[in-house]
Specification:
alpha+beta, 2 domains, eight-stranded mixed beta sheet
Amino acid sequence: MTTDRSKRFPIGLTVATAIAFAILISLGVWQVQRLAWKEALLARIAALQAAPARPLSKALTEMAAGGETDFTRVTVVCPGLPRKPFLELYAVRDGEAGLRLISVCQVADGGYDSILVDRGFVAQTATGRPPINAADATPFTLTGVLRRPDKPTFVTPPNDVARNHWYWRDAQGMAKALGAVKPAPLVLMAETPTNPDWPALVPAPVPIDIPNRHLEYALTWFGLAVALAGVYAAVLWRKWKD
């Protein structure tokens, strides 16, 4: 007696399909979770844009106590900031390559004695740099937004401290290079100009156009899962029909 091999249940195909289906559904669920996170972030940014600036000292004290300070708008007096020494961080803004100037502001709150200040973006085509006078202590009031530094990815080049080539915001490393200790693990993104007499330095306010395509991505993954299930069902139907 012989067995018709074509009528056997396709175990291998079923296992492979089940694994692929589970992966696609998992990716869809992950995008739904990302959607909720992104919507909360956008709502927070929208509220921030209308909120008055708070003293930096209060924000740092709250952060030291475990509070959330990312995207918080603050104001602080940074003596001599327009002429502080700075590091140059490679950046791209609106498709244009350039540098961001990073300086240190002295603080004394939350157990920290300094915070990095992103003074703004300078296009690669701009010539010159702001003058430096480390001894300048002229009071300078700055308004900006606190941001947690982005982590480097696998394609981010390593920072070259010796050549002052920086590719990601390493709060500890940058503070050390600028001679500061006990830096806050945040960056203060300037909203107000730090060098009004040099318009080539453009402040970086809170981003207002953050893409949110997670629902589209979720529907794509779920759609692929449904398509896979349909193809698998069609294969079974044709197999048994033939």
